[in-house]
Amino acid sequence: MRGPYRKRRVQRPPQFSNFKPSGIPRKYLDSIELTVDEFEAIRLADYLQKEHAEAAEMMQISRPTFTRLIQQARRKLATAIIEGMELVIIGGNIDFEHTLHRCHDCGEVIQLPVDVSEEDCPGCGSQNVEDLARSFIMGRHHRGGRR
């Protein structure tokens, strides 16, 4: 019998959680879900051009697991683009190293260690600040890990 899934290490949450074809109202679109760890695999392998072994080490998973994860993510991304679907990034069994805080008044985004809480925007002083990591772990984009 397999043990519990280990949390996957993610450097920081995505800045955006939804992508859709322009000009088509969301209500007419099918959607496909990409987990935050799949997003991180794409970021590391395709955006940052990391080798699978290095990316796996950064996520604290095995290289074969990383390879399966990136294959799943690429398949979902291709499906969304080719079939014109909305791509929705959701939580998962993850651990963030950093968080991003977005000010809803001035739009500034700052990166902080995950254990630091910033209540005011350093740019404009507003308290209308969203912790993006928290929204993926506890809020509207959350999906718990498998057991």
TrEMBL record:
InterPro entries attached to this UniProt entry: RNA_pol_sigma_r3/r4-like, UPF0251, WH-like_DNA-bd_sf
Pfam families: DUF134 (PF02001)
Domain of life per record: Bacteria
Family stated for the protein in its record: Belongs to the UPF0251 family.
Protein's UniProt name: UPF0251 protein ENK44_02570
